[in-house]
Amino acid sequence: MSPFVSMLIPAIIASLGGFLAVFWNPSHHTRSHIQHFAAGVILAALAVEILPEIGREHAHWWVLVSSFAIGGILMYIMKLWTMGLEAKNEHGKGLNYGLIAAVFMDVSVDGFLIGAGFAANGETGLVLALGLSVELLFLGLSLISDVIKGWRVVMMSVLLALTVLAFSLLGYYLLAGASVDIISAILSFGVAALLYLVTDELLVEAHIIEEKPSSTLWLFTGFLIFWGIQLASA
């Protein structure tokens, strides 16, 4: 499978998530299960493919540490920025620009990381594309509100799909032939971004309501399925 075809997978699935949101509005407990499952898949992608790939590249340790630190700091700044936007909109009836900005920034980072994965190794790129597709499939559901619903969610999801595809291609072509240190730095930055996605978005939002004990099983299920697929294809 060519890199371009593989990059289409998360874009197509992101669009499908928008269409799914038109016909299905899951309960809070169902969303919590979904978010735990997506968190498990992303954690598996980190543990099974991305971190081992960074180790195989043998980049300088200070490159990896500094890139991860920069990624963590930028995620923290993004958190403060989106919280400020959401606070301004707390009593308003318009669009939640904080949420929308955070979603598009997340998708841009995801797309660039997928492109970096393909620049480093075709298998790494495919694993990232498949793993992040789980998140993108249900992203449309997180955009549903009194203002954004129905076909507006579909339009927003299509824009997200185009964003993830554009940044995947950008990452791939910018990093094609790049040095080991540069690619490893991008992947290390991506590790910080994905940890932020799991711990400060997916799981935090999943715990807003009183969750059922079975939610934890969905996290392990997501991890196990992704790991099992990787082991079977090795």
Mean pLDDT figure: 82
Count of spatially separate domains: 1
| Uncertain regions spanning at least 5 consecutive residues | none
Choose one word for the global shape.
globular
Largest sheet: none
Rg value: 17 Å
The DSSP helix count reads 9
> Can you give the helix content as a percent range?
over 70%
Q: Report the strand count.
A: 0
The topology string of helices and strands comes to HHHHHHHHH
Strand content: under 5%
Structural class: mainly alpha
How is this fold's topology laid out?
Elements lengths: L2 H21 L4 H30 L3 H28 L8 H24 L1 H16 L1 H4 L8 H25 L4 H27 L7 H20 L1
Helix pairs in contact: 1-5, 1-7, 2-5, 2-8, 2-9, 3-4, 3-8, 4-5, 4-7, 4-8
Q: What do you see in this structure?
A:
The chain is built from nine helices and no strands. With 234 residues, it is mainly alpha-helical. The chain has one domain (3-233).
Keyword list:
single chain, 9 helices
Quick description:
The chain is mostly helical. The protein is 83% helix and 0% strand.
